[in-house]
Amino acid sequence: FFFAQARELSILEVKVDKVENEKLLKANKNVVLTVQESYEGTQKTTQDLHCFRFHSIKNWEPVLKARLQNIESTGGPDSNYTLIIPLKCLPVGQQVTVALPTEKGGVLELHLQVIGWAQNPDVRLGYELCAEEQDFLHKRKKVVADALSKLFYLRRNLLEHEVPVVAVMATGGGV
Length: 175
Hints:
Helix content: 10-25%
Largest sheet: 4 strands, antiparallel
Mean pLDDT: 80
Low-confidence stretches: none
Structural class: alpha+beta
Distance between the termini: 18 Å
Order of helices and strands: EHEEEEEEEH
Strand order of the largest sheet: 4-1-8-7
Number of helices: 2
Radius of gyration: 27 Å
């Protein structure tokens, strides 16, 4: 068996000021936020939505891109983003405020925070069972050896390497 290393997650939380967002919506504009490397991809502000989370693999070096657009617009070329920030440039656990340029020289404040991820995931890299699992198997072999000795009326106790290891595996479906 081979045990794979879990990938570190990067979680970005973005908050748009609710009052400023409402002003933009009245002007028929919304904020478009994209982290292409994330599960969520692109998200847009609406009347009820001004806080966002993006989940992505840290090693993919995710990048936040933000821009304003007319609400009727279906999107546009990637070059229209007026704010581009690599997540690796943001401090973990600290809120950072950045300015998204708006029309007529104004700015809209975006509050960004990279939320800490598990530094020691429960998945490990290796070809062997972990120490706890090996300890369990060692103890279990003693119980199985005693049971087999009683079942088959053996004259001597089985040695550890003579005890069979029986495993049952099941999946929840899928591939």
